[in-house]
Design a protein that fits this description.
Blueprint (H helix, E strand, L loop, with lengths): L1 E5 L4 H11 L5 E5 L2 H10 L4 E4 L10 H21 L2 E7 L23 H16 L3 E6 L2 E2 L8 H9 L4 E4 L2 E3 L2 E2 H16 L6 E5 L5 E2 H18 L10 E4 L6 E3 L4 H7 L6 H17 L6 H7 L1
Parallel strand pairs: 1-2, 1-3, 3-4, 4-5, 5-10, 6-9, 7-12, 8-13
Antiparallel strand pairs: 8-11
Helix pairs in contact: 1-6, 2-3, 3-4, 5-7, 7-9
């Protein structure tokens, strides 16, 4: 199966590239320009097009949202003509306010109030109306080791530099390891390619919903512990400060049962992936720690 992935520098694109390198049943091409993507679709060589999510809907400008929406609409037309599967990933922030309790079901179409989010909902409506073979995958806040929107490297660099990080105590999310999302998408597409016929909207988020403050505090705690284990100083680490939303508590907690029941995709525990990625980040920054003398003797 051949995949075309738009936005080559996005953390999801890089994670998909790494995942496909380990497999023999998938091929992948990365493109950055809409023109290149449309030409590739027109060639008829690709089975599916994957569009990574636009993150930080609370912070980016309406112009950025419009540019993203226009690109996706161009891809809808290209996929319709070529018969290519469209996979559109979108941030959980499409649910503008979230819910005070419970989880957000896959079948619940977002009904935001802000114009930029309404524009994205209209894009989703077009996908459902014009492309029978599609996946709309709503995801929790992604974090990974590299690439645009990877989130974690910026957090680690800020904390290591001794700068304070503000995080919302009353915003609850399901942090989502990007590697887990990449594996899920590959598994879903292969099942669909083999006749699953399970098109539509799905949710994927990390196990254990937490407040944004709790997640960032966990990043700091894990960073401090791993620095200490390497004998590196921790006194200068930045602190994490809780802040609160003007509009009160928001829960953007996605119910992921449909993805599990349909494709057998399990949510990835974000705490385990967080530990691994911080260790990897420290290895790249300071080199891998030496094994204890007793272990070196055993290895020799």
């Amino acid at each position: 199966m051949k995949l075309l992935v738009f936005d080559a520098g996005h953390c999801l694109s890089l994670a998909l590239d790494r995942e496909v390198e380990r497999r023999l049943d998938l091929e992948l091409s990365l493109v950055d320009e809409s023109r290149d993507a449309l030409e590739a679709l027109d060639s008829g060589q690709f089975d599916a097009l994957v569009l990574p999510p636009l993150a930080h809907l609370d912070a980016i400008s309406p112009e950025q949202v419009e540019a993203h929406a226009s690109r996706v609409e161009a891809m809808i037309a290209g996929c319709r003509v070529s018969g290519t599967i469209l996979v559109w990933c979108i941030s959980d922030q499409i649910y503008e306010h979230g819910y005070e309790e419970g989880a957000i079901e896959e079948g619940l179409i977002p009904r935001p109030e802000s114009a930029p989010r309404k524009r994205l909902v209209a894009v989703g409506d077009r996908i459902r109306a014009e492309l029978p073979r599609h996946l709309v995958v709503r995801v929790g806040p992604l974090f990974g080791s590299e690439g645009e929107e990877a989130w974690l490297p910026d957090l680690l660099e800020t904390l290591e530099a001794g700068r304070r990080v503000h995080a919302e105590q009353d915003l609850f999310v399901g942090p989502t390891p990007v590697e887990g999302l990449a594996r899920a998408l590959c598994g879903m597409l292969l099942q669909l390619d083999n006749g699953a016929e399970a098109w539509g909207a799905y949710h994927l988020a990390g196990i254990e919903p937490v407040s944004l403050f709790t997640f960032v505090a966990a990043v700091r705690t894990q960073l401090e512990q791993q620095l200490s284990a390497r004998g590196l100083p921790v006194d200068g680490l930045g602190e994490v400060e809780a802040v609160f939303r003007e509009g009160g508590m928001v829960r953007r907690v996605l119910n992921c049962r449909r993805m599990l029941g349909t494709f057998g995709v399990h949510q990835k525990p974000w705490r385990l992936e967080l530990e691994r990625l911080i260790e990897q980040w420290l290895d790249e920054r300071f080199g891998e720690p030496e094994a204890p003398a007793s272990m070196r003797g055993q290895q020799g």
